[in-house]
Amino acid sequence: MRMIRIFLRISFLTFTLIFLFFHPSLSAQNQTVKIDEFVKIYQNDAAFNGSVLVAKNGVVVLKKGYGLANRGSKVLNTSYTKFRIGSITKPFTAIVIMQLLEQKKIALNEYISTYLPYYRKDIGNRVTIHHLLTHTSGIPSYTSNQRLSEVSLDPYPVEDFIKDYCSDDLLFEPGTEYQYNNSGYFILGGIIEAITGKTYEEVIKEFVLEKAGMMNSGYDHPRLNIPDRATGYTVNSGKYEKGRDMNMSIPYAAGALFSTVEDFFLWDQAINNGKLLDSGTMDIMFEPQFKSCAYGWFCVNDTIPGTSEIETIISHSGAINGFNAIIERRVEEKILIVIFCNSPGANLGSMCTGINNILHGIPNNVRKFVDPYR
Description:
The structure is a single chain. The chain is α+β, with helices and mostly antiparallel strands. The chain has a single domain (30-359), classed as Beta-lactamase (3-Layer(aba) Sandwich), CATH 3.40.710. The chain has helices at 2-21, 25-45, 89-102, 112-115, 121-124, 129-133, 158-165, 182-196, 200-212, 252-255, 261-272, 279-285, 348-359; strands at 50-56, 59-66, 68-70, 75-76, 83-84, 218-219, 233-236, 239-242, 257-259, 298-303, 310-320, 323-330, 335-341. Helix 3 (89-102) crosses helix 8 (182-196) and helix 9 crosses helix 11 (261-272). The longest helix is centred in the N-terminal third of the chain and has 21 residues, at 25-45. The model is unreliable at 1-25 and 368-374 (pLDDT under 50).
Protein backbone atom coordinates (compact mmCIF):
# COMPACT_ATOMS: atom_id res chain seq x y z
CA MET A 1 0.00 0.00 0.00
CA ARG A 2 2.84 2.37 0.86
CA MET A 3 4.36 1.89 -2.61
CA ILE A 4 0.99 2.55 -4.20
CA ARG A 5 0.60 5.80 -2.25
CA ILE A 6 4.10 6.92 -3.30
CA PHE A 7 3.32 6.03 -6.90
CA LEU A 8 0.06 7.98 -6.79
CA ARG A 9 1.79 11.05 -5.31
CA ILE A 10 4.49 10.97 -7.98
CA SER A 11 1.87 10.52 -10.68
CA PHE A 12 -0.14 13.45 -9.31
CA LEU A 13 2.90 15.74 -9.18
CA THR A 14 3.93 14.73 -12.68
CA PHE A 15 0.43 15.37 -14.00
CA THR A 16 0.32 18.74 -12.24
CA LEU A 17 3.65 19.87 -13.72
CA ILE A 18 2.62 18.75 -17.20
CA PHE A 19 -0.73 20.49 -16.80
CA LEU A 20 0.89 23.76 -15.72
CA PHE A 21 3.47 23.53 -18.50
CA PHE A 22 0.82 23.22 -21.17
CA HIS A 23 -1.50 25.77 -19.53
CA PRO A 24 0.59 28.94 -19.09
CA SER A 25 -2.64 30.91 -18.96
CA LEU A 26 -2.97 29.81 -15.34
CA SER A 27 0.19 31.76 -14.53
CA ALA A 28 -1.14 34.75 -16.46
CA GLN A 29 -4.41 34.59 -14.55
CA ASN A 30 -2.48 34.56 -11.29
CA GLN A 31 -0.49 37.60 -12.44
CA THR A 32 -3.72 39.38 -13.32
CA VAL A 33 -5.10 38.82 -9.83
CA LYS A 34 -1.88 39.92 -8.15
CA ILE A 35 -1.55 43.07 -10.28
CA ASP A 36 -5.18 43.95 -9.57
CA GLU A 37 -4.60 43.51 -5.83
CA PHE A 38 -1.45 45.60 -6.04
CA VAL A 39 -3.19 48.48 -7.83
CA LYS A 40 -6.03 48.37 -5.30
CA ILE A 41 -3.48 49.07 -2.56
CA TYR A 42 -2.65 52.31 -4.35
CA GLN A 43 -6.33 53.00 -4.86
CA ASN A 44 -7.04 52.55 -1.14
CA ASP A 45 -3.87 54.04 0.34
CA ALA A 46 -2.76 56.61 -2.25
CA ALA A 47 -6.07 57.79 -3.74
CA PHE A 48 -5.27 56.29 -7.16
CA ASN A 49 -8.08 56.89 -9.63
CA GLY A 50 -7.46 55.90 -13.22
CA SER A 51 -6.91 53.09 -15.70
CA VAL A 52 -4.19 50.46 -16.00
CA LEU A 53 -3.17 48.19 -18.86
CA VAL A 54 -0.41 45.59 -18.67
CA ALA A 55 0.64 43.39 -21.59
CA LYS A 56 3.39 40.88 -22.29
CA ASN A 57 4.35 39.40 -25.65
CA GLY A 58 1.42 41.17 -27.28
CA VAL A 59 -1.13 39.65 -24.89
CA VAL A 60 -3.05 41.80 -22.42
CA VAL A 61 -2.53 40.61 -18.84
CA LEU A 62 -4.76 43.25 -17.25
CA LYS A 63 -6.87 46.16 -18.40
CA LYS A 64 -9.09 47.81 -15.84
CA GLY A 65 -10.37 51.08 -14.44
CA TYR A 66 -10.16 52.10 -10.78
CA GLY A 67 -12.08 54.76 -8.92
CA LEU A 68 -14.09 57.59 -10.39
CA ALA A 69 -13.82 59.24 -13.79
CA ASN A 70 -16.16 61.98 -12.59
CA ARG A 71 -16.79 62.67 -8.92
CA GLY A 72 -19.94 64.66 -9.56
CA SER A 73 -21.79 62.04 -11.60
CA LYS A 74 -20.03 59.08 -9.88
CA VAL A 75 -19.05 57.63 -13.27
CA LEU A 76 -16.42 54.91 -12.88
CA ASN A 77 -13.12 54.69 -14.72
CA THR A 78 -12.81 51.85 -17.23
CA SER A 79 -10.17 50.62 -19.65
CA TYR A 80 -11.82 52.75 -22.36
CA THR A 81 -12.06 55.97 -20.34
CA LYS A 82 -10.37 58.88 -22.13
CA PHE A 83 -7.64 60.78 -20.26
CA ARG A 84 -5.44 63.71 -21.18
CA ILE A 85 -1.92 62.35 -21.53
CA GLY A 86 0.05 65.60 -21.21
CA SER A 87 3.67 65.27 -22.25
CA ILE A 88 3.23 61.76 -23.68
CA THR A 89 2.04 63.83 -26.64
CA LYS A 90 5.75 64.42 -27.33
CA PRO A 91 6.49 60.86 -28.56
CA PHE A 92 3.60 61.26 -31.03
CA THR A 93 5.18 64.49 -32.27
CA ALA A 94 8.56 62.77 -32.55
CA ILE A 95 7.07 59.88 -34.56
CA VAL A 96 5.65 62.35 -37.09
CA ILE A 97 9.04 64.07 -37.38
CA MET A 98 10.67 60.69 -38.02
CA GLN A 99 8.04 59.88 -40.65
CA LEU A 100 8.87 63.17 -42.38
CA LEU A 101 12.53 62.14 -42.17
CA GLU A 102 11.69 58.89 -43.98
CA GLN A 103 9.88 60.96 -46.62
CA LYS A 104 12.99 63.16 -46.97
CA LYS A 105 10.94 66.24 -46.09
CA ILE A 106 13.02 67.12 -43.04
CA ALA A 107 16.61 66.70 -41.85
CA LEU A 108 17.61 66.29 -38.23
CA ASN A 109 20.66 68.56 -38.62
CA GLU A 110 18.68 71.32 -40.34
CA TYR A 111 17.86 74.56 -38.54
CA ILE A 112 14.56 76.03 -37.34
CA SER A 113 14.87 78.93 -39.79
CA THR A 114 14.82 76.52 -42.74
CA TYR A 115 11.22 75.60 -41.96
CA LEU A 116 9.97 78.66 -40.05
CA PRO A 117 11.24 81.80 -41.85
CA TYR A 118 9.46 84.00 -39.31
CA TYR A 119 11.52 82.67 -36.38
CA ARG A 120 14.21 85.02 -35.02
CA LYS A 121 17.32 84.35 -37.08
CA ASP A 122 19.97 84.69 -34.37
CA ILE A 123 18.52 81.58 -32.69
CA GLY A 124 16.78 79.94 -35.64
CA ASN A 125 20.09 79.60 -37.49
CA ARG A 126 21.73 77.83 -34.52
CA VAL A 127 19.07 75.43 -33.20
CA THR A 128 18.46 72.21 -35.15
CA ILE A 129 15.62 69.67 -35.25
CA HIS A 130 17.91 67.35 -33.30
CA HIS A 131 18.23 69.95 -30.54
CA LEU A 132 14.45 70.40 -30.35
CA LEU A 133 13.81 66.66 -30.13
CA THR A 134 16.39 66.09 -27.38
CA HIS A 135 15.64 69.08 -25.10
CA THR A 136 19.11 70.50 -25.79
CA SER A 137 18.12 73.65 -27.71
CA GLY A 138 18.72 76.12 -24.89
CA ILE A 139 15.40 77.82 -25.70
CA PRO A 140 13.54 78.58 -22.43
CA SER A 141 10.41 76.50 -21.83
CA TYR A 142 7.28 78.60 -22.21
CA THR A 143 5.62 76.82 -19.29
CA SER A 144 8.03 78.69 -17.01
CA ASN A 145 6.79 82.04 -18.31
CA GLN A 146 4.84 83.91 -15.64
CA ARG A 147 2.66 85.56 -18.29
CA LEU A 148 1.28 82.26 -19.57
CA SER A 149 -1.66 82.14 -17.14
CA GLU A 150 -2.95 85.39 -18.64
CA VAL A 151 -3.56 83.76 -22.05
CA SER A 152 -4.14 80.08 -21.22
CA LEU A 153 -7.93 80.13 -21.67
CA ASP A 154 -8.08 81.56 -25.17
CA PRO A 155 -7.10 80.10 -28.56
CA TYR A 156 -3.62 81.20 -29.61
CA PRO A 157 -2.48 80.91 -33.26
CA VAL A 158 0.61 78.71 -33.60
CA GLU A 159 2.86 81.27 -35.32
CA ASP A 160 1.92 84.01 -32.86
CA PHE A 161 2.54 81.77 -29.86
CA ILE A 162 5.95 80.70 -31.17
CA LYS A 163 6.93 84.35 -31.65
CA ASP A 164 5.55 85.46 -28.29
CA TYR A 165 6.47 82.56 -25.99
CA CYS A 166 9.01 80.25 -27.69
CA SER A 167 11.58 82.79 -28.86
CA ASP A 168 13.28 84.06 -25.73
CA ASP A 169 17.07 84.38 -25.45
CA LEU A 170 18.99 81.11 -25.14
CA LEU A 171 19.81 79.75 -21.70
CA PHE A 172 22.88 77.90 -23.03
CA GLU A 173 24.60 77.09 -26.30
CA PRO A 174 22.53 74.54 -28.28
CA GLY A 175 23.72 70.98 -27.80
CA THR A 176 25.83 71.63 -24.71
CA GLU A 177 23.25 70.97 -21.97
CA TYR A 178 19.95 69.20 -21.34
CA GLN A 179 16.90 70.97 -19.98
CA TYR A 180 13.40 69.52 -20.40
CA ASN A 181 11.62 71.90 -22.69
CA ASN A 182 8.03 72.30 -23.88
CA SER A 183 8.96 75.12 -26.26
CA GLY A 184 11.00 72.73 -28.42
CA TYR A 185 8.02 70.48 -29.07
CA PHE A 186 5.67 73.40 -29.64
CA ILE A 187 8.09 74.61 -32.32
CA LEU A 188 8.22 71.09 -33.81
CA GLY A 189 4.44 71.22 -34.12
CA GLY A 190 4.75 74.47 -36.07
CA ILE A 191 7.38 72.89 -38.31
CA ILE A 192 5.11 69.89 -38.96
CA GLU A 193 2.33 72.26 -40.02
CA ALA A 194 4.70 74.25 -42.25
CA ILE A 195 5.96 71.12 -44.04
CA THR A 196 2.62 69.33 -44.47
CA GLY A 197 0.31 72.28 -45.02
CA LYS A 198 -2.09 70.71 -42.50
CA THR A 199 -2.88 71.37 -38.85
CA TYR A 200 -1.01 69.40 -36.22
CA GLU A 201 -4.31 67.82 -35.20
CA GLU A 202 -4.95 66.61 -38.76
CA VAL A 203 -1.42 65.25 -39.13
CA ILE A 204 -1.50 63.31 -35.85
CA LYS A 205 -4.80 61.72 -36.84
CA GLU A 206 -3.62 60.80 -40.35
CA PHE A 207 0.00 59.85 -39.65
CA VAL A 208 -0.37 58.04 -36.32
CA LEU A 209 -3.84 57.49 -34.88
CA GLU A 210 -5.53 56.07 -37.99
CA LYS A 211 -2.52 53.91 -38.90
CA ALA A 212 -2.47 52.43 -35.40
CA GLY A 213 -6.26 52.03 -35.18
CA MET A 214 -6.45 54.42 -32.23
CA MET A 215 -10.06 55.45 -32.73
CA ASN A 216 -10.54 56.65 -29.13
CA SER A 217 -7.65 59.11 -29.13
CA GLY A 218 -7.23 62.60 -30.48
CA TYR A 219 -6.42 66.26 -30.02
CA ASP A 220 -8.40 67.48 -27.04
CA HIS A 221 -10.87 70.33 -27.07
CA PRO A 222 -12.40 70.99 -23.63
CA ARG A 223 -15.75 72.08 -24.99
CA LEU A 224 -16.21 69.07 -27.29
CA ASN A 225 -18.65 66.45 -26.08
CA ILE A 226 -16.24 63.52 -25.93
CA PRO A 227 -17.91 60.33 -24.61
CA ASP A 228 -16.25 58.51 -21.70
CA ARG A 229 -14.02 61.48 -20.87
CA ALA A 230 -12.42 61.55 -17.42
CA THR A 231 -12.31 64.73 -15.39
CA GLY A 232 -8.95 65.72 -13.94
CA TYR A 233 -8.83 66.69 -10.27
CA THR A 234 -6.46 68.56 -8.00
CA VAL A 235 -6.66 68.96 -4.22
CA ASN A 236 -7.15 72.25 -2.40
CA SER A 237 -7.41 72.47 1.39
CA GLY A 238 -8.08 68.74 1.58
CA LYS A 239 -10.87 68.76 -1.01
CA TYR A 240 -10.96 67.57 -4.60
CA GLU A 241 -11.47 70.26 -7.21
CA LYS A 242 -11.63 70.09 -10.98
CA GLY A 243 -8.28 70.83 -12.60
CA ARG A 244 -7.86 74.32 -13.99
CA ASP A 245 -9.18 74.65 -17.53
CA MET A 246 -6.83 75.40 -20.40
CA ASN A 247 -7.26 76.01 -24.09
CA MET A 248 -5.45 73.13 -25.76
CA SER A 249 -3.76 75.43 -28.25
CA ILE A 250 -1.39 76.16 -25.34
CA PRO A 251 0.04 72.64 -24.73
CA TYR A 252 -0.40 71.89 -28.47
CA ALA A 253 2.30 69.53 -29.82
CA ALA A 254 3.90 69.32 -26.37
CA GLY A 255 0.82 68.05 -24.51
CA ALA A 256 -2.65 68.36 -26.08
CA LEU A 257 -3.64 64.75 -26.80
CA PHE A 258 -6.07 62.43 -25.04
CA SER A 259 -6.22 58.66 -25.22
CA THR A 260 -7.20 55.41 -23.50
CA VAL A 261 -5.01 52.65 -22.11
CA GLU A 262 -6.54 50.31 -24.70
CA ASP A 263 -5.49 52.62 -27.52
CA PHE A 264 -1.98 52.77 -26.06
CA PHE A 265 -1.81 48.99 -26.44
CA LEU A 266 -2.66 49.46 -30.13
CA TRP A 267 0.00 52.18 -30.36
CA ASP A 268 2.60 49.89 -28.83
CA GLN A 269 1.67 47.11 -31.26
CA ALA A 270 1.85 49.51 -34.22
CA ILE A 271 5.36 50.57 -33.14
CA ASN A 272 6.48 46.95 -32.70
CA ASN A 273 4.97 45.81 -36.00
CA GLY A 274 6.46 48.60 -38.13
CA LYS A 275 3.14 50.25 -38.98
CA LEU A 276 4.45 53.71 -38.12
CA LEU A 277 8.18 53.63 -38.86
CA ASP A 278 10.71 51.40 -40.56
CA SER A 279 12.97 49.42 -38.23
CA GLY A 280 16.01 51.52 -39.14
CA THR A 281 14.18 54.75 -38.35
CA MET A 282 12.96 53.32 -35.05
CA ASP A 283 16.55 52.47 -34.15
CA ILE A 284 17.45 56.12 -34.73
CA MET A 285 14.46 57.37 -32.70
CA PHE A 286 15.19 55.16 -29.69
CA GLU A 287 18.95 55.75 -29.60
CA PRO A 288 19.82 57.89 -26.54
CA GLN A 289 21.30 61.16 -27.76
CA PHE A 290 21.99 63.12 -24.59
CA LYS A 291 22.16 61.01 -21.43
CA SER A 292 18.91 58.98 -21.48
CA CYS A 293 17.03 61.31 -23.83
CA ALA A 294 16.23 59.91 -27.26
CA TYR A 295 13.94 61.45 -29.88
CA GLY A 296 10.68 61.93 -27.99
CA TRP A 297 11.40 59.18 -25.47
CA PHE A 298 13.62 58.37 -22.51
CA CYS A 299 15.65 55.20 -22.94
CA VAL A 300 17.70 53.47 -20.24
CA ASN A 301 19.22 50.05 -19.63
CA ASP A 302 18.25 48.08 -16.55
CA THR A 303 18.58 44.53 -15.27
CA ILE A 304 15.67 42.15 -15.68
CA PRO A 305 14.36 41.52 -12.13
CA GLY A 306 15.79 38.35 -10.63
CA THR A 307 18.53 38.08 -13.26
CA SER A 308 21.77 39.74 -14.36
CA GLU A 309 20.48 40.26 -17.91
CA ILE A 310 20.21 43.79 -19.29
CA GLU A 311 17.13 45.10 -21.05
CA THR A 312 16.10 48.40 -22.64
CA ILE A 313 13.33 50.44 -21.03
CA ILE A 314 11.64 53.05 -23.21
CA SER A 315 9.31 55.37 -21.35
CA HIS A 316 7.65 58.74 -20.99
CA SER A 317 5.37 60.38 -18.47
CA GLY A 318 2.91 63.24 -18.65
CA ALA A 319 1.03 65.62 -16.37
CA ILE A 320 -1.52 68.30 -17.14
CA ASN A 321 -4.13 70.01 -14.95
CA GLY A 322 -5.38 67.10 -12.84
CA PHE A 323 -4.07 64.27 -15.02
CA ASN A 324 -0.96 62.10 -14.76
CA ALA A 325 0.15 59.35 -17.12
CA ILE A 326 3.04 57.00 -17.76
CA ILE A 327 4.00 54.46 -20.41
CA GLU A 328 6.83 51.99 -19.88
CA ARG A 329 7.97 49.63 -22.65
CA ARG A 330 10.46 46.88 -21.76
CA VAL A 331 11.73 46.05 -25.20
CA GLU A 332 13.41 42.65 -24.99
CA GLU A 333 10.64 41.10 -22.90
CA LYS A 334 7.88 42.88 -24.84
CA ILE A 335 6.33 44.17 -21.62
CA LEU A 336 4.01 47.19 -21.77
CA ILE A 337 2.73 49.05 -18.70
CA VAL A 338 0.35 51.99 -19.15
CA ILE A 339 -1.14 53.94 -16.25
CA PHE A 340 -3.46 56.93 -16.57
CA CYS A 341 -4.60 58.84 -13.49
CA ASN A 342 -7.10 61.66 -12.90
CA SER A 343 -6.32 62.54 -9.28
CA PRO A 344 -3.14 63.31 -7.31
CA GLY A 345 -1.43 61.09 -4.77
CA ALA A 346 -0.15 57.90 -6.40
CA ASN A 347 3.45 57.51 -7.56
CA LEU A 348 3.01 56.05 -11.05
CA GLY A 349 6.69 55.19 -11.38
CA SER A 350 6.55 53.09 -8.22
CA MET A 351 3.42 51.42 -9.52
CA CYS A 352 5.26 50.44 -12.72
CA THR A 353 8.10 48.96 -10.66
CA GLY A 354 5.70 46.93 -8.54
CA ILE A 355 3.78 45.63 -11.55
CA ASN A 356 6.99 44.62 -13.27
CA ASN A 357 8.09 42.77 -10.14
CA ILE A 358 4.84 40.80 -10.17
CA LEU A 359 5.40 39.83 -13.81
CA HIS A 360 8.76 38.37 -12.74
CA GLY A 361 7.56 36.67 -9.57
CA ILE A 362 9.41 39.11 -7.32
CA PRO A 363 7.72 39.92 -3.97
CA ASN A 364 6.84 43.59 -3.51
CA ASN A 365 7.74 45.66 -0.49
CA VAL A 366 4.77 47.88 -1.16
CA ARG A 367 5.20 51.48 -0.09
CA LYS A 368 1.85 52.39 1.38
CA PHE A 369 0.67 55.97 1.12
CA VAL A 370 -1.78 57.52 3.55
CA ASP A 371 -4.42 59.38 1.61
CA PRO A 372 -4.74 62.79 3.31
CA TYR A 373 -7.72 63.81 1.20
CA ARG A 374 -10.41 61.48 2.53
